Amino acid sequence: MKAGIIGYGSMGKMLLRKLSGSGRFAPGDLLVANRTKGKLEEAKDIAVICDNGTLASEADIVFVCVRPADMKSVLEEIGPGLKSDALLVTLNGSITFDMIKKVIDHKTAKVIPSLTAEIDRSQTIVCFNELVTDSDKNNLRDLLGTIGEVIELPENEVGMGSELVSCMPGFIASIFDVICTSAGSHTDIPREQIVKMVLNTLSATGELMLAKDLSFDEVVERVATKGGITEEGTRVIYDMFPPAADEMFNKTLEKRRLTAENAGRSFEE
Ligand SMILES: NC(=O)c1ccc[n+]([C@@H]2O[C@H](COP(=O)([O-])OP(=O)(O)OC[C@H]3O[C@@H](n4cnc5c(N)ncnc54)[C@H](OP(=O)(O)O)[C@@H]3O)[C@@H](O)[C@H]2O)c1
């Protein structure tokens, strides 16, 4: 099987590195294309560098890792030459199967990986259009399994799913950046050490909750004893954080809706 990656940006690079490292592809079976050719120089030892059209005519699975604004033109370019049994995979949550169908009526999957794929801990969202066969689904799930877990969702839930696994590393990083900065203003412990302490505790708390099937309430109850110090802090969080969390999702989901609207318009033109 040959896999092709169009768009050698953040996601394309990560996917190429991971597919190459999976041991499932000889360098000749990985193809990569990018608008700015110079960027591909560093990939020449692990993949065959080609143009979009050649890649589409040779690959059995084609990952299109470009931004929404570039999606339509890439699909128009590769559509005519795509192998009839190849699986087309787009990496954007705002581009719907209906939009894609206006350009190319082909078996298509949408895949939203997370940055945590870097350490093989992605929870990759995947959904399929009606033309994708069970065998294609299993192949893709198997391939994505090399970068972590695969979560299949209906197309209308891909947006919120993306918030929860693909945007979440950014949300988590910003929340704990705020917490570390605030902690720093109350102590002489160096920032670097504060960050390490918080991150290790964050990671261990998540592992503990998953391993022991603990709920958030149970963790809070175990740590925040009645009338104690932790309880003072958790009370502030439960009092003051909900409006910020609601506002965050209101804003991100609205932005997602506008991005999809703009993408839809670009597919009408
Ligand atoms: N970043 C994330 O965490 C993440 C997570 C899940 C999904 N996604 C989605 O994945 C897609 C890619 O995101 P990204 O962060 O990797 O974007 P990116 O870093 O901007 O990379 C996009 C790449 O596409 C290339 N490109 C643009 N037009 C092209 C064309 N006509 N032919 C070939 N290559 C072309 C660009 O080439 P140049 O070098 O010329 O600019 C660039 O290298 C987006 O739709 C995004 O929404 C991203």
**Shape type:** elongated
CATH class of the largest domain: Alpha Beta
- Distance between the amino and carboxyl termini: 35 Å
Helix content: 40-55%
Structural class: alpha/beta
CATH superfamily of the largest domain: NAD(P)-binding Rossmann-like Domain
Count of separate DSSP helical elements: 9
How is this structure best described in words?
Helices cover 54% and strands 13% of the residues. It is of the alpha/beta class and 269 residues long. The chain has two domains: 3-152, Rossmann fold, CATH 3.40.50; 162-263. An eight-stranded mixed sheet has the order 3-2-1-4-5-6-7-8, sandwiched between helices. Strand 4 (61-64), helix 3 (68-78) and strand 5 form a beta-alpha-beta unit. Helix 4 runs parallel beside helix 9 and helix 6 (158-184) crosses helix 7 (191-212). The chain is elongated, with a radius of gyration of 22 Å. The model has no long low-confidence stretch (mean pLDDT 95).
